[in-house]
Amino acid sequence: MGSVGEPTLNDSAKGLDYEVLVIGAGLSGIFSLYRLRELGFRARVLEAGSGAGGTWYWNRYPGARFDSESYSYQFTFSQEVLDEWDWTEHFAGQPEILAYINFLCDKFDLRSDIQFHTKVTTAHFDQSNNSWRVLDDAGKQYTCRWLVTAIGFLSAPTLPNIPGVHDFKREAHHTSRWPQHPVTYEGKRVGLIGTGATGIQCIQEIAKTVGHLTVFQRTPNWAVPLHNSPIDKDEMSAIRADYPALFDRCRRSYMNFLHMPETRALSEVSQEEREAFWENLYDNGRGFRLWLSNYRDVAFDKEANKICSDWVADKIRQRVKDPATAERLIPRNHGFGTKRVPMETNYYEAYNQSNVRLVDVTETPIEQITATGIRTSKEEIELDMLIYATGFDAVTGAFDAMDIRGLDGLRLQDRWEGSPRTYVGMTVDGFPNMFMSMGPHQSYGNIPRSIEYAVNWITDALAHFREKDIVYVEATAEGVEMWTEHVIDAAKGSLANEVDSWMTGINRNLPGKQRRIINRYTGSAPGFRGFCDGIAGGGYSTFKLA
Ligand code: NAP
């Protein structure tokens, strides 16, 4: 591992504070730091929070946990960590996930190069010496040759655009800005807005202890059972012995997950066969299996999708006692799996409790959030606590929150004009020496798998540039055009791209985010890696290098 703070022999960044600045100490940021040190770079991470972890630092809401198998959602870069870290649940809860991240930070002494409580406000490219000038919210300036954004794509939370949203005088939290102190629900009247993956995890947990919970739902989602269970020592040993095969399966799968798609189409099997198949996945299939190991045409063919959606709708009807509530919980405007499927444990059963009530705001819209509760078109509901599980300004929101300027003062926000344009999701023309881990148009899927690839690719590239004394790297306009068109082409035919969600750039709370766009790469992850490997193998000659 390279020593920290000491300029390396090949230091191409003399006179600058750092060779590399990384914004964000989530999974992308901490792995970037690990790799940059290993390669001997003088690097620093700037992080707004008081601790590392990013998503898993901020999202401390009740019930927050992995929806992907814990062991598939960990880093693979260190055999020692793989040997030492035991998971206690198939889908670990947020405290265990944060403990894992802190274990990594301790083991590799990462915190000594992470500057906490430092929110980056500005990053401007300085053409006079091919460097970035970065400012934090305290006005402190940092200079570097290479800028790596590791800011997450679900990290800029949004509140609902409901009148009075700032008027509520009692306890109120956005799920993604959950306090670090314990929050209790006993005896309290809690209101919760939002029924995405976050809201669903939160509702099923709070329902266990709450005085009374009112869920305000605009759009229901197709949630299916998570099938979490503890992992004992013996099972952990067996899982660990299987790590090489497990990671290999992730590498070969379309979105880096453990689950492989069913090779048959729905039309190739009988009704009895498909129902038995779904029944088995619904009752026994862990995590995303019903979504990702479904018949191959369910994601593309409207008829196949409808048959599957109708089958899942019947499951909801079987689980929710009140027929009117069950009907309200069945999505009508999108088919099963066309949005990221939320995972649940007794979510639907929560609505069978006498102290949990569903308010469908398409029937009785929220007119006003008041100092003491919520007024709908029908009634005034008094609340002691209000929870916003209302999502994010996804993918580009964290970029828009900073004033990022490239050549000739060009603002990134203007370059993208509401729809991102990138070269392999990691670079943008006009923004030299800037690299994005989990930027728009990257393959997301199982995020740590994607992060490991992106960070390795970026840091290998930086090592190459240093070796060749290259101090200026910029994506070409042709490269950006080609990749952006490819991203749009790859999305064609998928039903998910015809549906409004954060994945298609829609956020109805933000006036500028109501036009459907393609903001992530939906082609295969192996294909993505193959393409990026080709760029590296070609000596990065598809970039402008100087
Ligand atoms: P989301 O999917 O965007 O859901 C936001 C919810 O808030 C939606 O139900 C939305 O309704 C509702 N909402 C927003 N504004 C509203 C308004 N003005 N009035 C009424 N309802 C409003 O956000 P999320 O649930 O935080 O999930 C985002 C993503 O985070 C997930 O898709 C997933 O990728 C990730 N996530 C991962 C995990 C995990 O891995 N364990 C857990 C949670 C989340 P509409 O649909 O009608 O807009």
Structure, explained:
The chain starts with 17 loop residues before the first strand and ends with a strand. It is built from 17 helices and 20 strands. Strands 1, 2, 3, 4, 5, 6, 17 and 18 form an 8-stranded mixed beta sheet that branches. The chain has a 5-stranded parallel beta sheet with strand order 7-16-8-9-12, covered by helices on one side. The protein has helices at 27-38, 55-58, 79-84, 94-107, 197-206, 233-241, 243-252, 271-284, 289-292, 302-319, 323-329, 347-350, 397-400, 412-416, 447-467, 477-491, 525-537, and strands at 18-23, 43-46, 114-115, 120-126, 131-136, 141-149, 171-174, 189-193, 212-217, 224-225, 343-344, 356-360, 366-369, 373-376, 380-382, 385-388, 403-405, 434-436, 473-475, 543-545. The chain binds NADP nicotinamide-adenine-dinucleotide phosphate (NAP). NADP nicotinamide-adenine-dinucleotide phosphate (NAP) binds at residues 65-67, 154, 160-162, 193-199, 201, 218-219, 340, 361, 389-391, 502, 508-509.
Number of strands: 20
User: How does the overall form come out from the CA principal axes?
Assistant: globular
Note the beta-strand portion.
Answer: 15-25%
How much helix is in the residues? 25-40%
Q: What is the domain total for the residues?
A: 2
Q: Which assembly state applies to the chains in this document?
A: single chain
Instruction: Profile the largest sheet.
Output: 8 strands, mixed
- How widely separated are the two ends? 28 Å
Class from secondary-structure proportions:
alpha/beta
Q: Mean pLDDT across all residues, rounded?
A: 96
Low-pLDDT stretches: 1-10
Give the cofactors and ligands.
NADP nicotinamide-adenine-dinucleotide phosphate
* Secondary structure tally, helices: 17
Write down the CATH topology of the largest domain.
FAD/NAD(P)-binding domain
InterPro entries: FAD-binding_Monooxygenases, FAD/NAD-bd_sf, Flavin_mOase-like
Keywords: FAD, Flavoprotein, NADP, Oxidoreductase
Organism: Friedmanniomyces simplex
Protein name: FAD/NAD(P)-binding domain-containing protein
